[in-house]
Amino acid sequence: MIGWLKGTVLDKSPSNLLLNVNSVGYRLFITLSTYEKLPAKGLGTELYTVTVSREDALHLYGFADMDEKEMFLKLISVTRVGPKLACQALSGTTAGEMRKAIAKGDHIALSKRPGIGKKTAERIIMELKDKIGETAIDEALPHGDAGEDAVAALENLGYKKAESMKAVAKVLKEDGSVELSAIIRGALKLLSPS
Asked: In sequence order, which residues have a C-beta less than 8 Å from that of residue 65 and are 6 or more positions away?
């Protein structure tokens, strides 16, 4: 399997790229966000890749960063979501935005992605919500900086990141307070009920 390529851009379009790697031209399917990060023709670049082998073809998918590659791999693990649909879904969004929508169970936001209807969005949420991990909880925290600062403060007090994030998310959901001290107090009550 090919996991990473470094070479010169020979040709590019919003959906694929021809990359010269040591005088061998690799055709890679890419997302729109990867396309936007590519340099001009004739310049060097490097991409993380996923090799997809089918009975009749061998395809390479290229990604500008590891985060997008990992989200692609998670998407193609979903029933009836193939590589082409996963690329379409990741075009026009970031992996972080996709994780947030899945973590929040927001099938409406997911169904706005190209190629994803309501049923597919619900299937993605159902199959991936538990696999997304702590980063999605962290990114899904409402009130941005206040939530992140509260998690960091709780970690400094010796609490684990996962339990801190869950407690802060619960406080923010119930209380809606954006004052850091109030968020921390509420989370501490949840973490040490005595």
From this structure: 48, 95
112, 161: one domain: no
Q: DSSP secondary structure string, 28-83?
A: EEE-HHHHHH---TTSEEEEEEEEEE-SS-EEEEEESSHHHHHHHHHHHTSTT--H
Whether residue 32 contacts residue 91, with contact meaning beta carbons closer than 8 Å, is answered with: yes
Give per-residue pLDDT as tens, 111-128: 988 889 999 999 999 999
Q: Residue 104 corresponds to which tokens in the numbers above?
A: 């929040």
pTM: 0.69
Nearest to 60 by CA among 116, 108, 21: 21
Residue range(s) defining the domain that contains residue 155:
141-191
Tens digits of residue pLDDT in 30-64: 999 999 999 999 999 999 999 999 888 899 999 99
Examine the domain organization and report whether 70 and 59 are in the same domain: no
Q: For position 33, which CATH number holds?
A: 2.40.50.140
Estimate the crossing angle of helix 95-104 against helix 118-128, to 10 degrees.
Answer: 90
Q: How far apart are CA 176 and CA 192, in angstroms?
A: 21
Q: What is the spatial distance between Cα 58 and Cα 44, in angstroms, rounded to a whole number?
A: 24
